[in-house]
Design a protein that fits this description.
The chain is of the alpha+beta class. The protein contains six helices and seven strands; from the N terminus they run E-H-H-H-E-E-H-E-H-E-H-E-E.
């Protein structure tokens, strides 16, 4: 079952987010220790109006266990959603000018994160989360949804292509090149 996340999902969401975003977790938090990163991310999941807020998350449950997560939001709100994380990272890093790179274009609904527990991968759960995200975007009146995928992640790119996404440009984020992929709704 796919449902809207709630603050009580935080302990299951944090590992899924960290699994999906890898090095970007360091950029989002300004921290260098994984336990500290997990704590910071957990604090932002339970807040409203942040990139990784429960408000922007869909979760997939199987037999009562949360095994998948998708984080999605309007690209036009990306800067506003990143500001609380930037303030915290600026404080943590000591860099008053700390900025998180904006991932989405303002004209798109953005699929920020899709993650499925390793023990449940290969069962179509990622596809179900992506389709649920597309449904959410449609209901909110968006005409396209987009995502970023690592340039060298051929398996993920193939999945997204099978789901109707097409590559349109590359973007440099957190020291890595990502392919921007878009799907018309």
């Amino acid at each position: 079952m796919i449902r809207q996340a709630v603050p009580g999902d935080v302990s299951k969401c944090v590992p899924l987010i960290m699994q999906a975003i890898g090095q970007i977790a360091f950029v989002l938090t300004g921290a260098t220790d994984e336990r500290e990163i997990a704590s910071i991310l957990g604090g932002f999941i339970v807040q409203e109006k942040t990139r990784i807020s429960y408000q922007n998350a869909l979760v997939l449950e199987k037999e009562g266990d949360l095994v998948g997560l998708a984080i999605l939001y309007d690209g036009a709100e990306a800067r506003e959603l990143d500001e609380p994380l930037e303030r915290a990272a600026a404080s943590k890093s000591g860099n008053a000018n700390y900025r998180i790179p904006t991932e989405p274009e303002s004209s798109e609904f953005y699929l920020d994160t899709v993650s499925v527990s390793p023990r449940c991968q290969g069962k179509g759960y990622g596809r179900k989360l992506i389709e649920a995200g597309c449904d959410r975007a449609r209901k909110l009146g968006h005409e396209r949804i987009a995502l970023l995928v690592e340039v060298d992640n051929a398996a993920a790119k193939r999945l997204y292509e099978r789901l109707g996404f097409r590559a349109d440009f590359t973007k440099w984020i957190a020291g890595e090149d990502y392919v921007h992929m878009v799907r018309s709704l």
